[in-house]
Amino acid sequence: MKNNMHFSNGKNKMHNNKDITDKQYIYAVARIRSKELTLFGKSDIEQLISCSTEMECLRILTDKGWGKDGSHTSEQILTSEREKTWELLKELVEDISVFNTFLYGNDYHNLKAAIKQVYRGTKGHNLYMSNCTLDPEVIIKAVSEHDFSLLPEYMRDIAEEAYQIQLRTGDSQLCDIVLDKAALDSIYAYGKESGNELISQYVELKVAAANINIAIRSVKTNKDEEFLKRALSECESLDINKLIECAIEGMEAIYDFLATTVYFEGVPALMESSQAFERWCDNLIINYIRPQKYNPFTLSPLAAYLLARENEIKTVRILLSGKRNDISDDIIRERLREMYV
Amino acid sequence: MEALNNYGIVLALLGAALAALVPGMASAKAVSMGGIAGAGVIAEDPSLFGKVLILQLLPGTQGIYGLIIAFITFSQIGVLGGSSDISFVKGALYFAACLPMIIVGYTSAIRQANASVASIGTVAKKPDQFGKAMIFPAMVETYAILAVLISILAVSGVTGLNI
Question: Can you give the residue ranges of every domain in chain A?
Answer without folding.
Answer: 1-15+100-193
